Give the backbone structure.
Amino acid sequence: MSDISETVKDWVAGVLGPGVAVEYGRFPEAAVACEVKSSPGDPWVKRYQSGGGIKRYAYEVYIRVNPRGAEEPRFDALAALRSLQGRIESREVPPIGAACLTHEVTQLPNEHSTEKDGRAVYQMTAALTYHEKGN
């Protein structure tokens, strides 16, 4: 996992709060679990001769919750993802250590799938565009 991936994961965890277990690249074993991972694609938007340039870090956020009708209270994953969306749209950015040009939602929060055991998975995607320094 890259430094930016770790920073984004930690930022998402801070936004979602202590009731949500967050990990990079996989769901943690928890009633309310969140997976943050990088989206596929070339990160370079523009390269400079100095070795720096403009990069884009696209990421996906998935929240898995208990099935409807379960004994445990159901976590409102859509509300949590909409809260994350609101923070992004208010121009909040993770402290990535580079000049951030944009932070945008690329796919609105939605219900992504239902697992065999009935747990629902909700998703949203976003992207950071930032300037990376060269030599």
